[in-house]
Batch of 3 targets.
Target 1
Amino acid sequence: MIIAIDGPAASGKGTLGKRIADHFGLAHLDTGLLYRAVARALLDAGRPLDDVAAATLAAERLDVESLDENRLRGAEMGEAASVVAALPMVRAALVDLQRRFAGRPEGAVLDGRDIGTVICPDAPVKIFVTATPEERASRRHRELVRRGEEVAYETVLADIRRRDARDAGRTSAPLAAAPDARLLDTTDLDIEAAFRAAVSIVENMTASSLRAG
Ligand code: CDP
């Protein structure tokens, strides 16, 4: 069973993806980490983020098994990731890797921006997770403060709005809900409630895809 979870920055799709994967005994890939790792490789090599050749090479050389999540999580990396993620060559270089991950016999949970639309358009379960920009900014702000980053809530909110606009406005695989995705608005849901809602969406969608079968 392939479960595609998409949504804007800090909508909670990563946490949900992990919980859903554990619950159903599936592997989980947070595809945002791939774009963050490409951006990290460029910054480490002293290259500008719009160096298409270097970014494409970094994407081609990525090893999913050795992503250092801790180095990739900060606010600066999210912003840098969204710049390289707008490069069509970078996106193209990462397609096979993501499809291979999804293609394992038991299936997998992938979360990102274009899983239901581009990477796994035939996934039987697609969830598009949303929340208001203010709620997402306050979640992300709490998370960054916990990591020890000193940043104002207003800065995080401006960052989220800018990233939403860039991710939804790019021409290559823009952030969008697939027509057959179920929307999950988590603005008023805590993690437990969002998790329960997502499990029930998965159960409903797998039941109806089996019926359609
Ligand atoms: O955790 P957060 O939602 O802040 O970010 P992320 O999921 O780690 O993604 C970082 C950036 O990578 C996003 O702003 C997107 O520009 C890009 N991305 C993408 O284009 N496609 C994906 N499947 C996943 C992430």
Target 2
Amino acid sequence: MIYKAPRGTHDIFGVNAAKMSLLEQVARVIFRKRGFEEIRTPIFEDAALFMRSIGQVTDIVEKEMYVFEDKKGRKLALRPEATASLARAFIENRLGISMPAGKFFYIGEMFRYERPQAGRYRQFHQIGGEFFGVSSPAADAEIILLAQDLLYSVEVNEISAHINSLGCKNCRPALREALVKYLDSGHGLCGDCLRRLKRNPLRVLDCKIDSHKFTEIPQMSDYLCSECKCSFDLLQSLLESAGCNYIVDNRLVRGLDYYTKTVFEIRQDTAGSREALAAGGRYDNLVEDIGGQSTPAVGFALGSERVLAAAQKAKFFISFQESEKIYIALADSELFSEAFSFAVKIVKNGLRGNKNISVFGPLEDKNLTNQLKFADKIKACTAVIFAKTEFEKGKVLVKNMKDKTQTEISINEL
Ligand code: AMP
């Protein structure tokens, strides 16, 4: 029996694992600069948490969640996204009490049963930030700019923030009514859309089958109440003054029900690319809806795999420095313990001032030719060879594995 990774999942190893770590490292620095603290929540939660927060009539809840029962019959779900988990953690750990304006970030795996294709997986990674406790659009602007900063920092530069406002509890009903009236007027909707029209008309705009039919949808901004309109105007002027490249996109609705007011997606400007690299929005009712105190909040998530693919095309990883591989070889096996302690020493201190090294060997049971073949296979840059004659003079042979030149160097100089 040959086992394979489940459909829609992939192993990340070698240089791709290093790039993923580098992206996460860059993200941690950027988040901390803005006062965000890391939070790690469970990979699975009570399935009802996601149903309640993301919404029953959404693709994620209807089609994409991995739901299972544990041995005690509890209905659990692998997290399809982390905002609901963070809101739950915010309430459960009373994080709002010690910090009235809490800023948190997370990095981790998400799970959605989607049809796998390029840039779309069943297990993927998101890096996201959530800002609780501030209702001012300044927080929305901070989140959008932070998401863009993250992309710029990996040299994904040709991007635009597509923004929209979905209104609040007060103005959404009128917007909804206008939308239902428009959508219901002879567009020949698919089965999913007909069902959603009644319960969640905003989601109809996102339909992969029907969305191209909706050419003249009602202008959402016409239905915003004065508070939502003011917030959206202020957001735009803040983004403008920060030099942010943004586009107001009347069709943007996002696939999750908890959003209020601002929603946004950051897309690459390349022709035809509709896939978002990052996305998010404001969710002022979610914390209260799942049992906490009324707390305004705004957040975003970026898809690490998609950002890495975009960064691959950008210059960022060209300058990416892999560590120098050092192979410790033995010409005489009786020097094994000396070579072994040398390896331990350079792992700690580096070699000739370079601390970005990966050390292999010594291996006890191979002759020198085989050890050097092994060094070639792992693409070692340098082999440090312990040989009796040189070692008695306090020296080792340092072999450049590219041009195969070899010099005697005093151990103390390394
Ligand atoms: P969402 O949680 O749907 O708002 O998505 C936020 C970001 O996560 C998107 O912009 C994508 O970059 C990424 N993403 C969402 N779903 C997937 C998936 N199935 N595979 C890979 N990346 C994804």
Target 3
Amino acid sequence: MSDVILSTHELHKRFTSSRGVLGAPSHIYAVNGVSLSIRRGETFAIVGESGCGKSTLARLLLRLLDPSEGQVIYEGQDLTALPAAEMRKLRAQMQFIFQDPFSSLNPRMTVESIVGEPLLVHGTLSRKERREKVADLLRKVGLRPDHADRFPHEFSGGQRQRICVARALASGPKLLIGDEPVSALDVSVQAQIVNLLEDLKEDFGLTLIIIAHDLSVIRHMADRVAVMYLGEVVELAATEALYTTPRHPYTRALLTAIPVPMPGARGQIAALGGDIPSPANPPAGCKFHTRCPYATEICKTTRPVLENAEAHQTACHHWRSLPPLGTDAAVTAPRSAATEARFALYRDAASKTAGHSK
Ligand code: SF4
């Protein structure tokens, strides 16, 4: 059996927006040439600021979105070439946990119906067996069997996310992808869900892919981390190496970002300063060069590639000659209203396309 459960090869996703200059269609380059290999049984984290393409990448991995170019290989099968019916069968093995446990549960369905639905779709259990299986799953995620008869509105945010996890486990997946699975929860509940996912990973022999912007959450659960910027992976390393010896200026800046101490901020890191270029018109060369304090001429013209020969991969022309950690020049300029508007446009296009693809 291969060590690698899922891999991507030069994966690209472009969205087309009709809101370009003078109403002409424009392309938003959400994911650009991402090649990754996820090892069986690991927890792999994908981090970056809002709009970096990490959630789009997560949806491409399960083919909730179709890529514009490239391949997704799961257990030796090219998902991008699979007929829809075959893909539906495979989805039992690959489940998604959405960010918002409030909107991802049907308010009119009981917990038994919600958690038992994948058993109906993918299995052959009798009603009694299904009910027993649901009770068992609820116990495993820290809920009680009698919760099966209740509706989602009767639960707290953390309990709803537990219901989402139970539903994801119902079809017996090998791979779970969590898109910011704790960021909509209160800080006090986040650790409980993180611990739950870690325990379930061991119990069920899962591979976990976690999408996050909260680096503190990732540090405690991930084996490896990929950092994304404007649709590209700019650094990939074992978690400890990434946190103790980050190489890419963007990763270094992310790691110095300060948690937002505000009610409702829900553990978000402070956004990096400086304008992120428009994903509809990304800069040539290194995409970080418009914000990077170490950019030189070559950075403006030549795209750096990940050095694949090393376990710690970095896409930066100058990582070997950066000043010592902790002495980075600050990236402090505020984000403009235009940048925020571009992100709104990007999120809008991504959510519409995701809805059409399901
Ligand atoms: Fe900065 Fe140049 Fe490295 Fe890009 S390639 S991160 S612009 S130093």
